[in-house]
Amino acid sequence: MEKVIKKATAPVIFCRLSVSSLPDISRIEKVCEPNPWSQALLKREFFKPLSLYYGARQQGVLAGYLLAHVVADEAHVLKVGVLPQFRRRGIASGLLQYVTVDFYDRGVRWVTLEVRESNKPARSLYDSLGFYEVGRRKGYYVDNGEDALVMSLNVREFLDRCR
Questions:
Q1: How many CB atoms lie within 10 A of CB 90?
Q2: What is the CB neighbour count within 10 angstroms for residue 132?
Q3: Structure confidence by residue, pLDDT tens digits, 13-40
Q4: Is 98 a catalytic residue?
Q5: Which of 6, 27, 53, 65 is the most buried (most CB within 10 A)?
Q6: Annotation marks residue 114 as catalytic
Q7: Annotated catalytic residue within 29, 114, 132, 140
Q8: Whole-model pTM?
């Protein structure tokens, strides 16, 4: 069993992840996703030139991760997962802020993602960061046929708000 760590007593470290983090990423994936990607599929992403993995660590524990593809001036977030015992501590928000700055440094102007229509906590998080709905993918999620909302973030506007 993992110990719950208070945010005030343990700083969160955001970083790029290497393939050595794969077992931890896979564990988070299994806990967070109704249809988790296999460890083999997650591993293949490490070797794609357009794929970037980022993580959030607290006291040495990988508390959350994010996988994105970067092509030209756009980043697409494929996965965001935070272990349940680390949720509601600003980890996902901090991770998204960290990667958005890194995306900017890579020349990215837009960040897009899909989110389940029913995932109100995630939608609220994305709204708070400046993402806005730009479309809908009907029946996107294979487990229940739920629609995905497509959301987009203007990186420059995000950074201007942070200043």
A1: 15
A2: 11
A3: 999 999 999 999 999 999 999 899 999 9
A4: no
A5: 65
A6: yes
A7: 114
A8: 0.91
